[in-house]
Design brief:
Chain lengths: 187, 78
C-alpha cells in the first residue's frame, strides 16, 4: 500500500489489468525460442551423425549451453510478465490509480477522483476480443490539468465501466461540503 | 575415415576448455543474481502482497534452480 500512497481508510476495491491473451503472445514467442536449439541439435544429429562423432563431451556441452539459453529466456519471460502484471488500474473507494509499468525502471502513477470523470468509453474490436471479452478503456476527465486514462486490451471492459460509473454516481450524489463564513455587519 | 565438416574449427585461436565454460557459467550466475534482485524488488515493493506475485516468485526460483542445476551437472561432465 505504501507504493500507492493510499489515504487512511482507503481500500482497493478492484484491479484492472490487460487481458491474459496479450501476454500469451509473448509467452508463445519465448516458448518457440526455447524449442529452436533442441530442434537444431536433433537436425544436426540426424543429418551429420556420419560426419561428426557425437561424444559425451559434445552432448554435455549442448546441455550446458541449452540450460543457459533456457535460463536467459526464463529471465526475459519474467521481466515481460512483471511489466505486464504491474501495469494496472487500482479502483479504490475514492479514485482510480493508474499504474503504468513501461519498463523495469520506468513507472508512472496517476490518480483520478471519481467526481472528475466526465465519460468512459469502451471499444471491443474483432472476433477474438469479442469472444475473450477484452477491449480498450478510455476514461475522460473533466479537468484541464490532468490527462485522460487509457488502457488497451483491458479484461472485461464493460464490467470495469459499470464499477467506475457506480462509484462516479455515488461521488456525484454526495452533498458537497459548504463552508459558512460570517460577514461582519450582516443582519 | 569420414570427413568432418566442422574440422575447420580446430584452426580457430579460441579453443573451448573448461576454464572458459566456467567463466560463461559464472557470467550467467552473476546476470541471474542481478536481475533476480531487481525482479524481487519490484515484486515486493509494487506487488501489493498479491498471491499471484508470490506464486510467480516461487515458479521463477524453482525454474531457475532447475536450469542452473542442469548447467552445473553438464559442466561437471566436461
Amino acid at each position: 500500500m505504501k507504493a500507492l500512497n493510499l489515504d487512511p481508510g482507503e481500500q482497493i476495491i478492484f484491479e484492472v489489468r490487460k487481458h491474459w491473451f496479450v501476454f500469451f503472445v509473448t509467452g508463445l514467442a519465448v516458448a518457440v525460442a526455447a524449442i529452436i536449439p533442441f530442434v537444431l541439435y536433433e537436425v544436426i544429429f540426424r543429418f551429420l551423425k556420419s560426419a561428426i562423432v557425437f561424444t559425451e563431451e559434445i552432448s554435455a556441452l549442448f546441455w550446458l549451453l541449452y540450460a543457459l539459453w533456457l535460463l536467459l529466456l526464463w529471465i526475459i519471460f519474467f521481466i515481460q510478465w512483471t511489466n505486464y502484471y504491474l501495469d494496472v488500474w487500482y479502483i479504490t473507494g475514492k479514485r482510480i490509480i493508474d499504474v503504468e509499468q513501461k519498463g523495469l525502471f520506468h513507472r508512472e502513477v496517476s490518480s483520478l477522483r471519481f467526481d472528475k470523470i466526465q465519460d468512459i468509453t469502451i471499444e471491443v474490436r474483432g472476433i477474438l476480443a469479442t469472444i475473450l471479452n477484452y477491449g480498450d478503456l478510455h476514461v475522460q476527465t473533466a479537468s484541464e490539468d490532468s490527462s485522460d486514462f487509457f488502457m488497451q486490451s483491458a479484461e472485461n471492459p464493460e464490467g470495469v465501466r459499470k464499477i467506475i460509473f457506480a462509484h462516479h454516481n455515488i461521488a456525484a450524489e454526495r452533498p458537497a461540503a459548504v463552508k459558512i463564513v460570517p460577514h461582519d455587519g450582516a443582519p | 575415415m569420414v570427413n568432418n565438416p566442422l574440422s575447420f574449427l580446430s584452426g580457430f585461436p579460441l579453443q573451448l576448455n573448461s576454464g572458459i565454460l566456467f567463466g560463461v557459467f559464472g557470467f550467467f550466475i552473476a546476470l541471474f543474481l542481478v536481475i533476480s534482485a531487481v525482479l524481487l524488488y519490484h515484486w515486493r515493493t509494487y506487488g501489493m502482497k498479491n498471491t499471484t506475485i508470490a506464486f510467480a516468485e516461487t515458479i521463477y526460483f524453482l525454474g531457475s534452480a532447475l536450469f542452473l542445476f542442469v548447467a552445473l551437472i553438464s559442466l561437471a561432465r566436461l
